[in-house]
Amino acid sequence: MRNKTAFEADGMTVAFQSAAEVSYVLRELNLRIEQGEFVFVVGRNGSGKSTLLKVMAGLCPISRGRVQTYSWPEVQAVFQNPDAQMIGESVIEEVCFGLENQGMAAEERVRRAEEALEKVRMKHLMHQSVEKLSGGQKQLLCIAGALASDAQLLVLDEPTSMLDPISREQILTVAQTLHKEGRTIVWATQLMEELGYGERVVVLDEGNMAYDGTPERFFYGDDSVSELSPCEQGGFRKPYIVETVEHLLHSGLSLSERPVTIPQFKRVIEDLCPFR
Fold first, then answer.
1. What are phi and psi of 56, to 5 degrees?
2. Any idea where this protein resides (predicted)?
3. Secondary structure letter of residue 132 according to DSSP
4. pLDDT above 90 coverage of the chain, percent
């Protein structure tokens, strides 16, 4: 059972002053994330999710309230556009760049870089030019750079929004592996199909907390048949798997679980139609 905190916010407010008015991005937000959690942050454009991740990464000051990142300085951020984060010419140079800035010895830099590239399955490309990498490989390279610095808290701001389905699956699979190793993952997204990879969903709406709970409850609610789910209340479209399960529930079938991922859906179908 987890009992250590990775990030905590109490009454956190972020506002920006313009010539005409004060614009609030986050409003009196209370949030606690425990070490080892995999949390998805969901919200429409302008909801405040990117600002929240920047606060967690130490890249944005708050206007009011209190925040504490207990994993600091072992926090690394991966953003939507990997090209904006690239500096090195080769894969190994890119991963080593941050370590060099920390004053780490060359031998230790290379060792850490190779271990990090191995985790994201890119060690065979360590001497490849960054320019020749695909979008998915560039995102994996950004993650490798974060791992090389021994980051225990990874914040990822829509890292798959510009990727094809195969690359997206690869990034999500790596994130799940890192989560199983005990790292804390906070991932902002607008893609509902991704939420089943995590264990917790936080929804922001105009800077306010609109939901905090499991992916299952987010999609199905407390009563999967008669009440609107938090997903529907927020105006989000449910994944195809969830829509299919709801059709089965409305037809009167009793299901062993309410799946949000393909493996869970497969178990439900096998329970309904066992193959022997």
1. -65, -35
2. Cell membrane
3. G
4. 63
Task: Return the structure tokens found at 127.
Answer: 């001497």
**Peptide linkage before 73 cis (omega within 30 of 0):** yes
Strand 75-78 with 5-17, pairing: unpaired
- Cα–Cα dist 31/67, whole Å: 9
pLDDT in tens, 93-143: 999 988 888 888 999 999 999 999 998 999 999 999 999 999 999 999 999
* Distance from C-alpha of 156 to C-alpha of 246, rounded to nearest angstrom: 31
254: which residues sit within 8 A by CB, 6+ positions away?
none
**Helices and strands (H, E) in the chain, number of each type:** 9, 9
Neighbours of 200 (CB within 10 A): 18
Question: 106-119 vs 135-148: helix axis angle to the nearest 10?
Answer: 130
What pLDDT does 223 receive?
65
Residues 110, 98: Cα–Cα separation, whole Å: 12
Per-residue pLDDT tens digits for 140-184: 999 999 888 888 899 999 999 888 888 888 899 999 999 999 999
The answer to whether residue 2 scores a pLDDT higher than 70 is: no
Task: Give residue 197's identity as a one-letter amino acid code.
Answer: Y
Name the percent of the chain lying above pLDDT 70.
95
The backbone torsions φ and ψ at residue 168, rounded to the nearest 5 degrees and listed phi first, read -60, -45
Cα 153 versus chain centre, distance: 11
Of 166, 195, 226, 244, the C-alpha closest to 43 is 195
Q: What is the value of pTM for the model shown?
A: 0.90
